Amino acid sequence: MAKNAFQRLVNKASIAEDGYEDEYYEDDFADVDYFDDEQEADVTPIRPVASGGDIARIITVWPKSIDGGQEFADPYRKGIPVILNMTAAPDQERRRILDFAMGVCYGLRGKVNKISNDVFLMTPHQVTVETSHSEESSAF
């Protein structure tokens, strides 16, 4: 009986001549041309990124606390390089200011270059810093 039930299942699942003919014929679509060689797709041209041009100015800031972060972050966001002179800031605040400056630079794809232990240069992504001495500048 199990063999009989299995045979009925196979008969139902198999493709059998059931008297119906498919209404779809490949020949119906033989004359349709899906690719029209004469028509081209609209293509958006690639435009070069506007160059940063020559740097007209560099801002120097002497932050004393993290509260002065907006003083250098806003000009930097506009693409202006900023020199951070942290000689007037306490040691604890220097680390916080530098962390904030590095976050701003990272978010805008720029760099922080160490000039000395207390002076850092924030450069936007379109600005490169070249050194003329044999030692490489420290970039974070």
TrEMBL record:
GO cellular-component term (any): cytoplasm
Keywords (A to Z) from UniProt: Cell cycle, Cell division, Cytoplasm, Septation
Family: Belongs to the SepF family.
Entries under InterPro entries matching the protein: Cell_div_SepF (IPR023052), Cell_div_SepF/SepF-rel (IPR007561), SepF-like_sf (IPR038594)
Oligomer status and interactors: Homodimer. Interacts with FtsZ.
Keyword hit for Cell cycle: yes
Keyword Repeat belongs to the record: no
Source domain of life: Bacteria
GO biological process, one term: division septum assembly
Gene3D superfamilies, sorted: SepF-like protein (3.30.110.150)
Protein's recorded name: Cell division protein SepF
Organism this protein belongs to: Ancrocorticia populi
Function of the molecule: Cell division protein that is part of the divisome complex and is recruited early to the Z-ring. Probably stimulates Z-ring formation, perhaps through the cross-linking of FtsZ protofilaments. Its function overlaps with FtsA.
Subcellular location: Cytoplasm
